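Researcher: Next sequence.
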Amino acid sequence: MQKIDYALIVTDFDGTLAHSDGTVSEETKAVITRYVADGGHFAVSTGRMPAGILPRVKELGLVGAVCCGQGSVIVDIQSEKILLEGRIPNDVAVTVCEAMQARGLHIHVYDLWEYYSNMDDDYLAYYEGVVKTKAVLVTDKPMSEFVKESGMRPFKILAMVDPQENERIRLDLEKENFVGCEVTRSSSLLVEVGNVAFSKGTSVDFLAERYGVDMQKTIAVGDQINDLSMIKRAALGFAVKNADETLKACAITLDKTNDEDAVAAIIQEYGYKNT
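Model: Next structure:
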């Protein structure tokens, strides 16, 4: 058994821990298992909803907490008990949906265990295939009207967009100054709006406190600008080789991509003491 150095490693899932085909290699699984057995804490912080990530972290044999929705929902993996929630007020959610509708965008609105889509198209089929969860279609009325009538306080609202339009749309929505919200990007296809008080950065704080780990012994790994808050918050923040250039500018950039088991390399090089 090797002695642990950095006792908490928090990683994004899609584009970081998982390969491009959505799988996690047997080598990476073995490295994570060993690190945890030696006393380290390993956690996933993702934009996915609980139903979209719990099966995956269970496949990895992880226990403890998983952070969903950019840190706005934290769930105990074994019991599926909600440990923390940071929702968007209903009136603000309605305003966000109205702004997205005015731009003709494909919208997803996330409640705790379900999500709702205003379009049944190729984008939705692709998304459902990735996260292995089906959307509830809302096509009989505007999404803003549905959200208002339901009284829902979602933890996340996103738009599926053409990758070439992503940054333009993100900046355009950012100018709306949605009260108490942050507009970010979690992939080339996704522009997301969430409660600004809850992020992947605050998820690192939550996990460090929960596991009794000094913040100076934390590591975060990501690939998109929604990972920026945890990259900045952790003692060591890494961007995989395939990461967004904006993230790379603020992180330690690896020479390995997600398809080359970058997270396993970090665990082996930084998770343990050299002596």
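Model: The chain is about 35% helix and 20% strand. The mean pLDDT is 96.
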